Known about the structure:
Oligomer: single chain
Radius of gyration: 23 Å
Distance between the termini: 64 Å
Number of helices: 18
Amino acid sequence: MRAGSVSRALLAASLLSAGSAQAWPSRLLSWFHSSSAPAASRARDLVGRGQADLGRVQGSKTPDPARDARLLARAAHAFLRANANTNAIASSPAADAATTAQSDARAGLAAAKALYLHKVLPAVRGADVREVSETSSRARAALMLASAPLRRALHDASFAPSPDNLQPWRFEVRDSDTFVVHGRDPRAAYGPYDLYRHAYWTSLGGLLETIRISAAAHGQTVVIERDPSRSDESPSFVGKLSPAPEGASLTDLSRAIFWRSTQRRAMNPRRLGAAEKAALETSVGSGFQVRWLESPRQRLRAAWVNYLTGKLRLTTPAANQVHQRIVDFGNENPLGRRLSADRVPAGAVGVDRATEALMRWLLPRERLLAVFNQYLAGTAVPGLELDLLPGLATGAHFLIETTGDSPPAGIDDYLAAGAAMQRFWLKATSMGLQLQPTYMPRALLAYSKDRQGSPHEPRFSSDPAGWRLERSIVNGLGNLARDVGAEPTHIIFAGRVGRGAPPDRRSLRLPLDDLLVLPEPGEARD
């Protein structure tokens, strides 16, 4: 494509983003802030509607998976919309009513998830009851020995972010206050996206920080130590809770744990305020700093880097295999395209229904997909919907980097990075902001640095066209970082953040029961 064509396309994208993003998010937010009491009342009405649909599923005596799935989808949508209302009025005079509605919405969404996993899905799969192994039963019995703060902390930890909702961890309860987190290397499922385990370690760091935040909110302190006998590929962490001395707790972050999510669609493009940015900058803690990309030119350049990254993902066969595994189109799961326990719901990807249907049909047909991408501009519409328009319609892009002299190098550095990432994300959620991480450019930067031009080193792509895209992405991220005074190799997390309604389609998590394990044979117990 010629430079002039690119410029015209980007100008059109900018105009489209300004129109689409300003339309409903800003009107919705202004309505929320100008009329908080009606918004709180509407949240209660939505919760009531959702609870009525839950009651219909619970009270049905004849199994009908299709009907139950529809009712649960409608109930979950109502609870998520209720939370959108309460987020917008959290600091208003109607805050007490909003908090109550939000608590009820959370309980309702958890109940909808439990009903789906325990009643609807087994019926879909042809089972009358959910199969429970002896090991699972014993692990649950161990959980009942745990103290209430520990059970709550592990439940909250299950909602920590992970690459494509892979949840690469399992929990072991040793006694009322002692637990173990076992890391499970997800590379087999994640393909080329995390060759050096950086995203994996970062997600484990976010999970451990979630446990600390949850424990603090319930009057506990937790000491977590990494087991030195375990490899970096499958690390284990032993933690112990104890009563905390009197002092401040991170309650604002703990309330955001359940509702934290990824917003892949357009947000309000109005810039963040100075107070909002200051709060986010403080949240990452010492050793890290936030760099902002918020001018129209910077947002355009960041969106273009993301667009190139999307094109690389969509044209790489190994990545296509990953997409087939992690995107839930609802083929086996009637609720899957809205809410998925172990994958990414297709409805949350960020494309319209027509593009989603085309993706669903093309992904398993690799040869046809390659022809479509090469000759029929198959990456253009997804790139516009997933990267260009959302990248322009946002409050700001951000880069979080380490402040030390050396870039992050090993597991401990990335565990600390994950803790900073989770605090930043939870703080944004607690402030009613939405966030989308963009990890791939940072991963490609690490691949490029280690490869040093050798064709025999690991690459994301396997063909020269992909290598050229990689180089463009790495150069683009480097230029963006240097433009705001950041060191590219020190970046540990990046994304975009802005105002807007939370997504009504999202990744849930596996129930805590399914994340419990027993000690390995011969393992010492405290």
